[in-house]
Amino acid sequence: MAASEATGPNGAAGSGDGLYDVIVLGGGPTGENVADRVHAAGLSAVLVESELVGGECSYWACMPSKALLRPVTARSEARRVPGVDEAVGRPLDPPAVLAHRDAFASYWKDDGQVRWLDSVGVDLVRGHGRLAGPRQVSVDGGRTLTARHAVAVCTGSRPLLPPIPGLAEAEPWVSRNATSAQTVPGRLVIVGGGVVGVEMATAWRALGSSVTLLVRGDGLLPRMEPFAGHLVAESLAEAGVFLRTGVEVREVRREAPGGPVTVVLDAGDEIVADELLMATGRGPRTDDLGLETVGLTPGSWLDVDDSCRVKAVGDGWLYGVGDVNHRALLTHQGKYQARIAGAAIAARARGVPLLETDRWGAHSATADTDAVPQVVFSDPEAAAVGLSAAEAERAGYRIRVVDQDLGAVAGASLYAEGYRGRARIVVDLSREVLLGATFVGPGVGELLHSATIAVAGEVPVERLWHAVPAYPTISEVWLRLLEAYRGD
Ligand SMILES: Cc1cc2nc3c(=O)[nH]c(=O)nc-3n(C[C@H](O)[C@H](O)[C@H](O)COP(=O)(O)OP(=O)(O)OC[C@H]3O[C@@H](n4cnc5c(N)ncnc54)[C@H](O)[C@@H]3O)c2cc1C
Ligand SMILES: NC(=O)c1ccc[n+]([C@@H]2O[C@H](COP(=O)([O-])OP(=O)(O)OC[C@H]3O[C@@H](n4cnc5c(N)ncnc54)[C@H](O)[C@@H]3O)[C@@H](O)[C@H]2O)c1
Known about the structure:
Its cofactor is FAD. The chain is 32% helix and 22% strand. The protein is of the alpha/beta class.
């Protein structure tokens, strides 16, 4: 299809002039959901996408990475069930895992997503969109679209590379390479001990790479409770990952394209590898977006209110939703924000005088601050929601922390022999509700939503006492945590 040609029902009927109620810039999970919500509320919507509809998540992030990781945890857990190790004891089959990953990335084609957009009645314009003044978006510098009510910027984020001499010339892997590589590197150095670093170390080590993980802090997963990073580091080391903490990369060299890469550390020692993955965080995809035409600074995160409306832009027509607003860089939070922003856009378009922007109101993305769930799909998994103990203390809460050994729960020992794991709840003593919970151990990702409901619902501890976990499941840890809290 030609660039900036509109497809879909709105484009076909009456929007040849490029006038829509809502323009959505960026068709990742967030943009798709904003467009869907506003269209479902009776507004016309067009989505502008420069690459693939589905965004980072579908092709280079969540889906391919989890398709690489599921075989790792499935095998590892099965090997710890007596009688099963004999059946699954062999190493992973890399070509089969990579083929599974390719399928989950839809072979980097967006036909399915485009069909879905069409089915929900949203037009698609392919091309690079830029703001061209209030309510205007130009596509590839040509066609101009105009929004009656709102423009929602959902352009996501991109990897942030630190200014290390020689790094750019050495053509390092970033997350896109790590999730889409077609061969297993013999030696892989990963810089960064956050989520991408940990997940990719887990996957590529299990696929056969010799992995060195370089971390400048003293542990992994620094945004979670410290025991999460400890347990994951212990298990990565057992899997054969060389973990080096407290190190900085001073210089990177790759003498010849495709040849080995040398990573020079602050202390002067050198590590030679076949690939270097930089997993050092994300920056906003707003540098070439025409932000200057509406008084904003190119390359900055979009500072939004709780309905995701950009604070500094008058008339309230510009929204920033998903990664681009830096509230919580997760697909499920972007989709949540899309539901909130979509409802706010529709209500404002209808002229509703007063929106429900109070805490937990229909037009306030309160969960972004109070109840963000995240699962790190490492082996073991680390899953957390809400505030860690340190965050709660920093926020001034009077708290009590309760910890439990997950391995002591009957359901956990049935799940895997020698189950290692830990759980923590953080209780706000003034209201006796949970501020946060963290679980680390095999299979805990599926336990997390129970905690999310407790935190977002602000369920009193005395009522949680009546939420009976089934026996013998890992969820029985809830009973142990509450018994410990009550002093039973
Ligand atoms: C390796 C990795 C693994 C991850 N795993 C998980 C996970 O398991 N679970 C989870 O919740 N999150 C995960 N994330 C985070 C998740 O990918 C992001 O939070 C999510 O993709 C954000 O969605 P978005 O729609 O805001 O942005 P994106 O998915 O980045 O989509 C933005 C879209 O906008 C388009 N675009 C950008 N600029 C323009 C423009 N000027 N004109 C037109 N189109 C434009 C882009 O092409 C893209 O399609 C992971 C991230 C990484 C890097
Ligand atoms: N399962 C999931 O939910 C999942 C998986 C992957 C990514 N994500 C999302 O994607 C985002 C990006 O992940 P990420 O791991 O790139 O970012 P991150 O912010 O989680 O971790 C980046 C790490 O790199 C370190 N770092 C930064 N500069 C460095 C340098 N010069 N040298 C050494 N270390 C350096 C930081 O201290 C930090 O620990 C995260 O915010 C996360 O929410 C989510």
